[in-house]
Amino acid sequence: MKISNRIKIFSLFAGICTVGVVAMAFTTKVVDNPPVTGEVEAPVVVKNMLQRACYDCHSNKTDIKWFDKLPIAASIVRRDVVTARKHLNFTEWDKLSKGEQDSFLWEAYNMINAGNMPLPEYAALHSNAQVTKEELAAFRAYLETKRVKVTNTIDTVHTAAVTTTNYPIAPTGIQFSPEFRNWQVMSTTSRIDNTTMRVMYANPIAMKAIKEHKINPWPDGAIVVKVVWEKEVDSEGNMHPGKFLNVQYMVRNAKQYESTDGWGYAKFETPTLKPYGTLLTAQSCASCHKAANATGGIFDLPTSN
After folding, report:
1. How many Cα atoms within 13 Å fall on the side-chain side of residue 165?
2. CA-CA distance, 235 to 224, in Å (whole number)?
3. How buried is residue 283: exposed, middle or buried, by Cβ count under 10 Å (0-12/13-18/19+)?
4. Three-state secondary structure string covering 3-48
5. Mean pLDDT of all residues belonging to the chain
6. CA 262/CA 51 separation, integer angstroms
């Protein structure tokens, strides 16, 4: 009789807990959905893919499921949605310039293509969030139509000409220095989305880490510099650097730049080397570079030493 009573009491307690959890799943408010100010515009197949795979986190149309409201899960979902919206919101698209819109679309493509988005844990619970090869191909084809066109004019290669030693400083505290010109070239890259070409330099600490395969994590003091030009095509179809656009820095200091995964970011634009962006821009850079986690956050490492 005593055992029977204990079972009854336990069953009653378990039933009350179950009812409580179910009630929370239907009543808990995880996040608000603010008004939509302007949605991303894209072909139907691309728009449908973004809505299905990205909107739950990156929009003001978050569709919360019952299991998202469960204890512990609700706080995780709330954190992820708030963070995602701050970085990219497809329903506040009108707040971005055309250049920012195109850049974010290419970032979304790269993150999906790298398998980093949708988040694996999200995709595991939302089977309809999986992006098919056909959808990814359609996304890439759409982005190809947005490429900046280059002209068949010959121009002198422009480089930054700064005659003073009072070099500019970025919002992150990183100061421009021409010292990188004496460093070893790490790699050269060419982006088809915005028709730019780049040369990447690595300081001795960074090059040593590359050669010794000690890049996860990179050692403090490693610096990678990227110089960016517009592409130009001559009358014979040869591609060469055209107008100088900017120079970008990534400086490794795990403690100082802990909030951006151990890397400090800086960008200096035009031959006047005008510092670009804010501290929030560095957060955006860090988010994009998560797609290169396998190489410690650095894209375009040399294929051989």
Report:
1. 0
2. 34
3. middle
4. HHHHHHHHHHHHHHHHHHHHHHHHHCCCCCCCCCCECCCCCHHHHH
5. 83
6. 32
Q: What does the pLDDT read at residue 191? A: 72
Higher pLDDT, 126 or 50: 50
Q: Tell me the C-alpha to C-alpha distance, in Å, between residue 172 and each of 46, 250, 256, 289, 296.
A: 36, 11, 10, 17, 20
Provide mean pLDDT across the span 69-83. 87
Q: For residue 237, what pLDDT band results from cuts at 50, 70 and 90?
A: low
Kindly report the CATH class assigned to 178-295. alpha beta
- Domain locations in the chain? 27-144, 178-295
* No. of helices (H) and no. of strands (E), the chain: 8, 6
Pseudo-torsion of CA 27, 60, 265, 224, nearest 10°?
100
Comparing C-alpha atoms, which of 247, 235, 236, 264 is closest to residue 196?
A: 247
| Lookup: tokens for 252 | 């490794």
